């Protein structure tokens, strides 16, 4: 199963916070409503979002997500970075859209 | 202490999603009929009809607070309530600088009508008022407080455009003065779902987009006198406030 660092290398993502890079990526969940992510994401999933608020870190911790990918060139807020560092959560960014990012990830996870 | 009945969330015809007959004049008439003591005029990202509503209400025993319902970068709504037109205009200036560029498509989104005290159309606001500002929730709440205003997390029970829908839960570092429970959620249900947020006072209001909606939910404030400072004291726990499912006095 692919790990966070494999994904970064294979689809080209920028590292903003490196947490546990050896965490297994079990799948992917995409949503910008954190209430929805809390309700429906699953342990080990990579989460793609546009949200940059510190609460994304808390959601990733609570749900055991493998990492957070922020798309469309958005960057995490400075408090989000601090919180992710202290919680050991990986935050990645990309200038690509959510659609492009998801497409690349889909092909990658399918090929495994 | 005297009881004052408040509906602190009413849209006018300036909000693209509100009915066109939501003019300040008709809103005040309706509020008088429903025996409200305090209302807030809270359009999306604008307060251009608030001043006229205050003027219409002068001398008829109803207090109109100028307000706005601001959309944050995270797409959460925040009610910003002030005690003077100068302060709401100061806030509006900040909001206007941070709205998306472009012109409101009236066919798609609805008209944004600015009116006078006689229900006559003064003009149409062309900004994209339904859009999200580029300001974070925290920046918005801090700005509201810098003008001495009240910051309320709008309809925290809604599945979209609420702090909880957008951010999962209410962040500790955002100093909301109150949380608003919408018309859609009964008191008992709110207690069961949002019990973790009892440290912040709760209010309820109509979020009226139609005249009939006005006063369908109200919050009662028990105050020494009807003033903005006394309302703020109630939100700090120094005066009593109370609400239940929708009934007005």
Short précis:
The complex is a heterodimer of chains A (112) and B (249). With 112 residues, chain A is α/β, with parallel strands linked by helices. Helices cover 43% and strands 18% of the residues of chain A.
Element layout with pairings:
The complex is a heterodimer of chains A (112) and B (249).
Chain A: H1 4-11, E1 14-17, E2 27-30, H2 34-40, E3 45-49, H3 55-63, E4 67-70, H4 78-87, E5 91-93, H5 98-111
Parallel strand pairs in A: 2-3, 3-4, 4-5
Antiparallel strand pairs in A: 1-5
Chain B: E1 2-10, H1 24-33, E2 38-44, H2 50-57, E3 63-71, E4 77-81, H3 85-97, H4 106-109, E5 113-115, E6 121-124, H5 137-146, E7 150-153, H6 163-167, E8 178-181, H7 187-194, E9 202-204, E10 219-223, H8 228-235, E11 240-242
Parallel strand pairs in B: 1-2, 2-3, 7-8, 8-9
Antiparallel strand pairs in B: 1-10, 3-4, 4-7, 5-6, 10-11
Helix pairs in contact in B: 1-2
Q: Can you offer a commentary on this structure?
A:
The complex is a heterodimer of chains A (112) and B (249). Chain A is built from five helices and five strands, in the order αββαβαβαβα. Chain A is of the alpha/beta class and 112 residues long. In chain A, strands 1-5-4-3-2 form a five-stranded mixed sheet, sandwiched between helices. In chain A, α3 runs parallel beside α4 (78-87). Chain B has 249 residues and is of the alpha/beta class. Chain B has a single domain, classed as Metal-dependent hydrolases (TIM Barrel, Alpha-Beta Barrel), CATH 3.20.20. Helix content of chain B is 27%, strand content 22%. Chain B is built from eight helices and eleven strands. Chain B has helices at residues 24-33, 50-57, 85-97, 106-109, 137-146, 163-167, 187-194, 228-235; strands at 2-10, 38-44, 63-71, 77-81, 113-115, 121-124, 150-153, 178-181, 202-204, 219-223, 240-242. In chain B, the strands form two sheets. Chain B has a nine-stranded mixed sheet with strand order 9-8-7-4-3-2-1-10-11, sandwiched between helices. In chain B, strands 5-6 form a two-stranded antiparallel ribbon. In chain B, α2 (50-57) links the parallel β2 (38-44) and β3. In chain B, α1 crosses α2. The mean pLDDT of chain B is 95. At the A-B interface, α2 and α3 of A face α6 of B.
